[in-house]
Amino acid sequence: MKKTTTLRAFTLIELLVVITIISILASFGAPQLIQKIAKAKLLEVYSYSNGLQTAIEEIILTTGSFPNSTQFESLKTSQNLSDNSIITSASIEQAQGITGTVKIELKEENGIEANQYFLFSRTITAKWDCSSTLPKSLLSEHCRNINNEGHEDDND
């Protein structure tokens, strides 16, 4: 007698159910993954700003004042940015005496909308404050969220 073996396979319905379940699970994780990627990209901004702050402090110690735009341009070129940097520009705003603000503008990336920026402001007591137009969920704990008019955003 000949023994017949039957092959067992998944039915089309079973495969569709598995694919549907995997799709539903992936849709829950995708937004969190995009947010984690955006937070990782923002580490470059913090590192870049720390380098600028250190260089600005050195200028304040040697000249007694916040750097002017010419001095700041030379500081920017000494800070290396990668070719795929999230930073589009950095500029000096409201420089007066030993206080001033560095504005770092960001390009649109995954999880980061267009026209977003950071403000790093040096106070008279040599403390640096951080604020940004980014959502609070993307910011580190030492940086506060502001809206485009410069007022604190309490709607988080």
TrEMBL record:
Keywords: Membrane, Methylation, Transmembrane, Transmembrane helix
Gene3D superfamilies for the chain: Glycoprotein, Type 4 Pilin
Protein's UniProt keywords contain Zinc: no
InterPro entries: N_methyl_site, Pilin, Pilin-like
Membrane spanning stretches: 12-34
Family: Belongs to the N-Me-Phe pilin family.
Protein name per its UniProtKB record: Pilin
Species of origin: Marinomonas phaeophyticola
